[in-house]
Structure formats: C-alpha cells, structure tokens
Specification:
Low-confidence stretches: 1-5, 7-12
Order of helices and strands: EEEHEEEHHHHHHH
Strand content: 5-15%
Largest sheet: 4 strands, mixed
Number of domains: 2
CATH topology of the largest domain: Glutathione S-transferase Yfyf (Class Pi), Chain A, domain 2
Strand order of the largest sheet: 4-3-5-6
Mean pLDDT: 92
Radius of gyration: 17 Å
Distance between the termini: 22 Å
Number of strands: 6
Number of helices: 8
Helix content: 40-55%
C-alpha cells in the first residue's frame, strides 16, 4: 500500500504516533483508518498486559492507562473512535465518513453498537475463551461463551438489519469508519467457530466480511494473534 507523509490542511507535518499493541482491536481500528487514508505513521508498542506494564510517562498521553493513544502536530488524543474521526478529518485521502448528517449518524450508531454490545462478548468472552485460553494453559470457560452468544447474536442482528443488501461496504457506497471498527472486531471474533457461525448465518454481513478481508489495509494490519 502506498504511503505518503502526513498532511494537515495541505501542509506537511510531523508523522503521527500511535501508542498501543498491534494485537489490540481498538489499536487496529486506528491503524486501519491510517492505512486507508494512506498516512505514514509510527506505532510505538505499549503492552499494558506485559509484566512491566506501561512506561511511567504513558499517563502523559492517556489519563486512564488504556490503549490506544495518539499524538500528532502537538495534539494528543485517546479513545479509538475519537482518534479515527480525527484521522479522517485531519488528513488528506479518501473520506471515511459520509457527507450527510443522516448517514454519519448511522455510522456513529454502528460504532456504538460495536463498542457497547459487540466487543466485550465477542472478543473477551468468545475469542479469548475459545482461542486463547489453551495458549494460557487453561480450559475454556464454556459457561462464559454460552452466556456471550445471545449478546453477540443481538448485536449482529442490529448490524445485519442496517447493512447494505448489495455491499461491498457496510452502509452506503463508500468505505467508512463503521467498516473499519467492525472489521477489527470480527477479525478476532470469527477465529472462534461460534463467532464465524454467527456471521455466516447473516447473508449481508457474510458478504461484507468476505470482501472486507481482502482489503490491503486488512493484510497490512494483521494482528500477531491471527495465526
């Protein structure tokens, strides 16, 4: 994928810095946005789960000691959805949000559904238990997986209803931040057979996911856990 020096209001500025772990879903959503805009950036690995934790000065970037954090041209941001919106508006490249208020509201609704109702049960309850528990040397918590399935079912039902029947993008004729936030979550969720089956059962999401996985940005930002 071609890269260009970050530009803000038409002028070259410092390359933006993204702080976070390459395996993190929210970090990947930001990386996808940067990749789709064609913005050169630096990823500084911050692994909050590591034994040594985050560097002492990380509070300078993120008040709640979470990832990701972002720095560009003197601006510091945290919260992935705020960062991806900034990336879309601050840098040159294809727009990642629709032009009309109605369509922007729909994309914001998609992102809220993902963050509030999809991410926890699909990633932490299904993916982690089914795909990562064995790596950690323990058995999967089957009750936790079973409890998460109806929650993910409801979230995906809502997204299926909103999704474009023709595709290839989730909503409307252009790739948006909604596509990127959902793709970052499903990249893990569908590694578990339960998550894959939930997407497969929904024709609009199934069609969209098959196309989304082919994008160069998805290949360029593959997580080290996607093995």
């Amino acid at each position: 994928m071609s890269k260009r020096l970050a530009t803000l209001h038409g002028s070259a500025v410092a390359v933006p810095i993204l702080y976070g772990a390459a395996y993190n879903v929210y970090v990947r959503a930001v990386r996808l946005a940067l990749a789709e805009k064609g913005v050169e950036h630096q990823l500084i690995e911050i692994d909050l789960g590591a034994e040594e934790g985050a560097p002492a000065n990380y509070l300078h970037h993120q008040s709640f000691m979470r990832i990701p954090a972002f720095e560009h041209d003197g601006e510091r941001l945290y919260e992935a959805s705020a960062i991806t919106r900034y990336v879309d508006e601050a840098f040159e490249g294809p727009p990642l949000m629709p032009h009309t208020a109605r369509h922007r509201a729909r994309i914001n609704q998609v992102i809220s559904i993902i963050e509030n109702y999809g991410y926890g049960p699909m990633v932490w309850s299904i993916f982690v238990e089914r795909c990562r528990a064995a790596v950690a040397g323990r058995a999967a918590d089957e009750e936790k997986i079973a409890a998460a399935l109806p929650q993910v079912d409801s979230a995906l039902d809502a997204l299926e209803e909103m999704a474009d029947a023709q595709g290839p993008h989730l909503i409307g004729r252009q790739l948006t931040l909604g596509d990127l936030h959902l793709a970052a979550m499903l990249a893990y969720g569908t590694l578990a057979p339960e998550g894959a089956a939930l997407v497969e059962a929904r024709p609009r999401l199934r069609r969209w996911w098959a196309e989304m996985k082919k994008r160069a940005s998805m290949q360029a930002t593959r997580s080290p856990l996607e093995q």
